[in-house]
Amino acid sequence: MGKTVLSIDGIRALAAIALVAFHVRLPGLEGAFLGVDVFFVLSGYLTAAILMKSDRAVGFGDVRTFVARRLRRIWPLLACVVVVVGLIAWFFGDGSVLGAETLPALLFVANITTALERAPGWLIHTWTLATEMQFYILLSLVFWIGRRAVLPALIAGFVITTLLRLGLSVSGYDWFTVFYMPFSHSSGLFLGALLAVSRWQPEDRAELLSALCIVVIGVSFYGVTFGDTLGFSISVIGVEIATAVLIACLLKPGGNRVAAVLGSATLAKLGLWSYGIYLWHYPIARLVRTEMPALSAFCLTLAISVVLAALTYRFVEQVFYTRVAHPKSEAPADTPNGRTVL
Asked: Of 231, 219, 46, 19, whose CA–CA distance to 127 is shortest?
């Protein structure tokens, strides 16, 4: 496994930890929900890298195969978590979850239902998977149209989604519309894909740029408030750009102490399990955050999420994707196992 992969997994790990901290309401990290946007840039980059791997034109059969493999990557663990959470919610007397939340989560439309219903629930965090799956389908169709269309389409996508989000914010739309509506929060996916297609890398000072990008992301986690539509709409641009530049710096050959830290064994392993950590952590946080101090809730939620993620990575993700989908034929050199999701 290359150093770049380990470093990218390290970014995933930190973003996942930030989201756990946010959802247990750990003081000082009110803006850590922006960790989702870090994930989006990573997913956009890795997805486009997979599609760019082939030298030949992408046919409709390739689109079908690509989407099917994305489903095999995402759906089994998602279904596992949805079933478990639905049963737990029913046990705690919230049987409405089974009807109201499980189907949108499994059909990848949770971002639409959340934006329309404006009601948080046990599975509200699955809106990110809906956003990603919708982007995967759109991106593969753009590649099908032709390689020449990809770069201008991605530039247009990033600009339009960014302006859409800003326009909704200044027009007074509510938080649920601005944050969850399809494609109003997809700019990071477009930017990550644009990085992969353009193959941009900094000419020099990659280590310094890496450190500055992490500072920008960290300050944003500290300085933004959930529910502030305009503050979010502006801050997310900085987080997306910082994440894209950080990825580009990590891809650049040569010594980089930031990459070495991000690629440490612990962070790399947590990054490998980050999809499971993301899916498991929110229902756990919802259960414990009102029963104990924030720091205790954070430690307990993270510990349980890591254990569950490790187990389901071994017995769900690897069984249904690594062994069934033969990802080595799909993944580019720096993306083993085709890990493109949260």
From this structure: 19
